[in-house]
Amino acid sequence: MTATPFPVGEIVAARRPHRKDAARNYDALLDAAREAFAEHGADASLEDIARRAGVGIGTLYRNFPTRRDLFESVYADEVNALCRAAVELADREPWEALTAWLNRFAGYMVTKRAVREALDGESGIFQSCRESMYAAGGPLLERAQRAGVARADMDFGDLLRMVAGITATAFEDDAQRDRVLAIALDGVRASR
């Protein structure tokens, strides 16, 4: 897999400030927002996000004039990280690359749920993110299928829905979620 630019990468690059200090603040705000959304959902306090990032609320609003801008930027940044991970994992063995990416996808789903609730699926960014995710992760499944280590009777959409369904369930902790995901992924492995 080559380092082909994904549509979401262009969105992320266009939104990120060019000045180093402004870019640092922007990145800190995204990290803080990601944590806050994972902990508190779409209702996370913007003041708390600014505090976690170590900046004032004015800096948050300069970077993200509306709550929606913040949600979209966190979402696009998460998908962009998934796309980069797919490229980085492409040199691993097919099954290892696929399962490592799917574990990363499972972690992303927690943030996605909070952001998607807030945006009500009306964001134009969703289509670019979906296209990017399929372009990045789909080849990992196809490669695993060609190598005979993943079932051939499924497509990438099936796989994402399975993982999304698992992550939508409440678990006692991350370790339990990881065990359940591992059990499900054993069902994706091709019979030998």
Task: Describe the fold and architecture.
With 192 residues, the chain is mainly alpha-helical. The protein has a single domain, classed as Tetracycline Repressor, domain 2 (Orthogonal Bundle). It contains 9 helices and no strands. It is globular. 34% of the residues are buried. This is TetR/AcrR family transcriptional regulator.
- Count every helix, treating DSSP H or I runs of 4 or more residues as helices: 9
Q: Architecture in CATH?
A: Orthogonal Bundle
Annotated CATH homologous superfamily: Tetracycline Repressor, domain 2
Helix content: over 70%
The assigned structural class equals: mainly alpha
Radius of gyration: 17 Å
The total domain count is 1
Order of helices and strands: HHHHHHHHH
Low-confidence stretches: none
Please summarize the sheet with the most strands. Answer: none
CATH topology: Tetracycline Repressor, domain 2
Overall outline: globular
Distance between the termini: 26 Å
Mean pLDDT: 87
GO molecular function, one term: DNA-binding transcription factor activity
Protein name: TetR/AcrR family transcriptional regulator
Pfam families: TetR_C_43, TetR_N
Keywords: DNA-binding, Transcription, Transcription regulation
